[in-house]
Amino acid sequence: MKIKIILLMLTIVSVNQFKLYAKFSAEQNGKVKNNITYIPVQYKTVLVDGLNIFYREAGEITKPTIILLHGFPSSSHMYRNLITELAGNYHVIAADYPGFGQSSAPTPEKYQYTFDNLSVTIEHFIDKLKIKKASFYIQDYGGPVGLRIATRRPELIQSFIIQNANAYVEGLGEILKPLTAYIENQNAETEKAARFFLTLDATKWQYLTGAENSESIAPESYIVDQYYLDRAGNDVIQLALFRDYGSNIALYEKWHQYFAKYQPPMLVIWGKNDQFFTSPGANAYKKDNPSAEIHFVNGGHFALEEHYSEVSKLIINFLSKKIK
Questions:
Q1: pLDDT at 263
Q2: Orientation angle between helical segments 142-152 and 115-128, nearest 10 degrees
Q3: Could you check whether the bond before residue 290 is cis, i.e. omega within 30 degrees of 0?
Q4: pLDDT number for residue 17
Q5: In angstroms, how far apart are the furthest CA atoms of the chain?
Q6: Percent of the chain scored above 70 by pLDDT?
Q7: Is the pLDDT of residue 131 over 80?
Q8: pLDDT for the residue numbered 38
Q9: Is the pLDDT of residue 3 over 80?
Q10: Are 222 and 200 a contacting pair, CB within 8 Å?
Q11: Fewer CB atoms < 10 Å away: N or C end of the chain?
């Protein structure tokens, strides 16, 4: 009898241990934690036109795809929190442009750093992954990259989620004047002023200025960006893109025509305290796409650092109505 009782107790302990192990394994694999589903993010690299393009991917490929296009001076790292929020509902992809993050950064002699060329590389990246339709989330530089692709391939676009990415002269902040001066008149003085935007002070300023609570901004956000900016030769890459920025403004009218003709479902989410791209830039989207849904959050240029959960809820609600 004693042996039977001992065996029974050992069996109960073993079962409980197995349950605990199974729970632990599920949590470690991103399955279940505190009754919330977590989807693991994969970190991949694919060869596109001779360049290694790094990207983050999460979610089932059978679900609607969202492509997240990052801004300056960041990389796919800026979407790390949003990806985990969206991956339960969508197939989510965020790539680093050439010269940014973990992607190849050839010298300007080997790769032409223009917004046209970045958009072509990302378009070929999308084709390499065999994506036929997607929603584009565009922020800052993601705007001119994504909108170029959209005007060339309107059939690719399911919807736009626009966060602090300008397509109108309204909303271009005064803080951009040093870059405008560098575009219009390239000399030692204007280059020196433009180079300020490549410093840690400037990067940190972009993240903290306009934040609802600066203490909620993780320091690694701007430290990671600065690490990539400080790589040897990266300053030349970024200055080339600064000089080319005027090509984006020249395309504004073309993008307006695209909005008016195709009326893509459009969710505009704006950090209302952004000093680069101010609030009028958000409202301007209604001029050519009156059905655009516009929301402001109490943040700055990198509003996702604080408001990724709020933003994800807006996206899920919006796409549930627009994408079937």
A1: 97
A2: 60
A3: no
A4: 41
A5: 94
A6: 88
A7: yes
A8: 72
A9: no
A10: yes
A11: N
Region for 294 from its dihedrals, namely left if φ exceeds 0, alpha if ψ lies in -120 to 50, beta otherwise: beta
Is the model's pLDDT at 20 over the cut of 60? no
**Cβ pair 45, 53 in contact under 8 A:** yes
Give the closest residue to 233 by CA, choosing from 75, 109, 320, 93.
109
Q: Please identify which of the residues 70, 77, 301, 307 carries the catalytic annotation.
A: 301
Contact between 174 and 180 (Cβ < 8 Å): no
CA distances from 176 to 46, 183, 184, 186, 204 (A): 34, 11, 12, 15, 16
Q: Please, are residues 225 and 203 in contact by the beta-carbon 8 Å criterion?
A: yes
* CA 95 from centroid of its chain's CA atoms: 8
pLDDT for 221-272, tens place per residue? 999 999 999 999 999 999 999 999 999 999 999 999 999 999 999 999 999 9
| Contact status, residue 296 vs residue 321, Cβ threshold 8 Å | no
pTM of the predicted model as reported, rounded to 2 decimal places: 0.89
Res. 36 pLDDT band, cuts 50 70 90: low
For the chain, domains (ranges, CATH) are 40-322 (3.40.50.1820)
- Residue 124 annotated in active site: no
The secondary structure of 234-277 as a DSSP string is: HHHHHHHHHHHTHHHHHTHHHHHHHHHHH---EEEEEETT-SSB
Angstrom distance (rounded) from CA 19 to CA 7: 18
Q: Pick from 228, 186, 180: which is nearest to 72 by CA?
A: 228
